[in-house]
TrEMBL record:
UniProt signal peptide: 1-21
Protein name: Oidioi.mRNA.OKI2018_I69.chr2.g7138.t1.cds
Highest taxon listed in the record's lineage: Eukaryota
Keyword DNA damage: no
Bilayer disposition of the protein: Single-pass type II membrane protein
Locations listed in the record: Golgi apparatus membrane
Keyword annotations of the record: Glycoprotein, Golgi apparatus, Membrane, Signal, Signal-anchor, Transferase, Transmembrane, Transmembrane helix
Keyword Membrane: yes
Region ranges (Disordered): 49-75
Stored InterPro entries: Gal-3-0_sulfotransfrase, P-loop_NTPase
Amino acid sequence: MLRNLRSYLLVALLIALYALSKFTKITDGLEKYYEMAEEAEKNANKAEYIPEPNHPKSSHHGGSHKHGSSSSPGVADPYDFSKSKWLPSKTNCAAPPTGMIFLKKHKTASTTFRHMLTKYARFKGLPSVGEPQLIGPQGGCYPARFDERCWPATGHMSPIVALTYHFRWNMDLFEEKFLTSGVASVTTIRDPETTFRSVYNYYYLNHAGKVSKCDMPCWGEPFRSFNNGREDLPVGEFLDNLPKLFNASETRNFRSKNYQAFEMGMDHLNDNTAYILRNLKRLDQHNFDFVVLTEYYYESLVLLAKLFCLPYEVLYEPQLNKREYEIEPLTPTQKKNFETYFKADIMLYDYFNKSLHHKIEDYGREKFHQEVEKLKAVYEKCEEDVKHCLWKKAPRMNPEDLKITAVPGEKMKVQDFIDLMDENFGWCSNPFNPYTQLKLWQKTGKMTYGDECNYKQDILNNFEL
Ligand SMILES: *[C@@H]1O[C@H](CO)[C@@H](O)[C@H](O)[C@H]1NC(C)=O
Ligand SMILES: *[C@@H]1O[C@H](CO)[C@@H](O)[C@H](O)[C@H]1NC(C)=O
């Protein structure tokens, strides 16, 4: 009896050991990759390059841009996608991108896509996998349009090699300065109603009754203020009352009006159709090489692989379990209100869907669908065993060979940051939001962040009074 038990235990132990070794093998590649990604994010705070003195630091806001399309009152051919900034047929894999700008939009699967593009940087051996953020996960003085005063004190590379954190697009600045040849630019969009539900849960409902000790987004807003402090209004009731509740002067009001257009640099309060179309056209023709639609995941990956001249393996990401929500369909009134407040986002989604489908036509529809099947087959194998998706990173390229220079940074004035927040719906009254803490620092010379929050260190590194 006892002997029997012992041999059972032995067999069980052997099975466990075998499983463990197999598991270790499977996860090894991924583990390494995530370690690298994390390390990259941390390292982002250390200068990897030697600053070059006497590089003037300029700031850009407003200003007209070269193409003139934004100043024309009408919108000729708003849907002329043959003029899109990038088409598959324009790809030149003899000179693939040596820089990338990824606009990491909120609640649009952007973390997954950021991982993918970080892997591109490693695969190619680009001299950076990501510019460092200013505070926490974001930079550029979000929600203000990207402002060059908001580069962190460690400086940045020029031309840009990898800009992939949360920021708000700035068409004037990027067209003039950042979107040089060899720099590919990408972002992700998602069905507007699904995105809004996700935004409402994430910033508001899931944070009811909590005070974050490390608050970047100004949790709860604008929904909490719209409701006089109430923290549990169901989304349907919110949409029923949106026209009464909405306050265009409230902080973070863009989360309940044209959030995606806002992050892509548009004025979210301008519902003029010609204005919206003019800007969508400008985004398509002069700003983004490709806009991913998360609802066209595999199609988007084929196009991304084409844009970056990549084997599909490199873009592989394990599919995370999607959270399932009980979804009450919107009533006709709620739908009507939603469509009023998200007019630009609905137009934007439709516009870039058309743009994506034009790219598919340009690729050759037949051939494109074969590629989608190929990619899916590759990913099924990776799903079984990640070994199928391992790849070797290229040796690190030399910034000088790429004519990339380091622009030194300087500390940002606290007051400049506060002004930018005040002008761009970025102020906040939550106690551990950087805005509150910077004001406190100004007033008392101290911040009250605890050890659990690294924003204090970011602030000390990047700001001066
Ligand atoms: C709208 O928001 C601003 C900024 O918080 C506030 O001062 C103002 O009182 C609000 N207006 C209404 C009608 O609640
Ligand atoms: C996107 O465009 C295609 C082609 O025009 C259309 O068939 C499809 O319904 C659109 N998808 C969405 C989600 O709007």
